[in-house]
Amino acid sequence: MHADIVDLRQFYHSRLGRFAEQSISMALSSVWARLPEERLVGLGYAVPYLDRFRADTERTFAFMPAGQGAVNWPVAELSATALVFDEELPLPDSSVDRVLMVHSLEFAENPRETMKELWRVLAPGGRLVIVVPNRRGVWARMEHTPFGSGRPYSRGQLTALLRETNFTPGASADALFFPPSKLKMVLKLRSAFERIGRSLWPVFSGVIIVEAQKRLYQGLPVAARASRRVFVPVLAPHGVPTTRETALRRARPIDL
After folding, report:
1. How far apart are CA 127 and CA 139, in angstroms?
2. Which chain positions lie within coiled-coil regions (predicted)?
3. H/E/C letters for each residue in 62-114?
4. Structural domain count of the chain
5. Is 54 helix (H, G, I), strand (E, B) or coil?
């Protein structure tokens, strides 16, 4: 089950969320250089981090899963947001250069199918960066942040998944060494926690960040897939009463 878009926005607008964004952004900058004239797609809820990269890109899109919901981005500009099903992205083959996954893989219904779809849309030599909760970390055990939901990964599990889906793992980093506490005293000490954590307990970071490159010398088995679901938008005017059964039927995805 995906995290809700409202909860994600509220978290990143909170003090704890802003500090978490700073920690992850610093780690991202160590594994991902500038993107001169490349096409970048953020999958999941990556908008807090896309702003740092899009100035150098040819174009940047924010793809948000249908189960999560979407918000308009960038603010006060033409929208570059799309509501998608992560196993069937609305892109042609080999059409993007980079993909950034945040709050995405841990919620994927079928992680292997999602990774195969990303392999399809990435250009030859394209790169992927994944940010996932660390199953050994404290953040994966606290439900008051988005990193406490979904399926956390170990570095070994993430590496194995990448290799199974024809990606070559490359550089990696860790972030969120400070506790996910809302106490001001703890947050004031976050810089010390981050500095000491990288030296003394790197395996207990809150998130794992791994970069991978699309591998070309092996092929993926081709199998015809029929779309399994279609999400139907519900437009109901305010003040019009509906029965509970009707509302549920409108919100339910249609199985094909």
Report:
1. 27
2. none
3. EEEECCCCCCCCCCCCCCCEEEEECCECCCCCCCEEEEEEECCHHHCCCHHHH
4. 1
5. helix
Range of the domain at 109: 5-214
Q: Parallel, antiparallel, or unpaired: how do β-strands 39-44 and 59-65 relate?
A: parallel
Q: What is the CATH number of the domain that holds 136?
A: 3.40.50.150
How far apart are the C-alpha atoms of 179 and 144, rounded to whole Å?
12
87 part of a folded domain: yes
Average pLDDT over residues 152-158: 96
Of the two residues 53 and 238, the one the predictor is more confident about is 53
Tokens 């919100």 correspond to: 251
Q: Are strands 229-230 and 207-214 parallel, antiparallel or unpaired?
A: unpaired
Residue appearing with tokens 């033409």 = 78
Q: Are the C-beta atoms of residues 35 and 53 closer than 8 Å to each other?
A: yes
Check whether 237 has a pLDDT greater than 70.
no
51 pLDDT band (50/70/90 cuts)? confident
Q: Which has more pLDDT, 220 or 80? A: 80
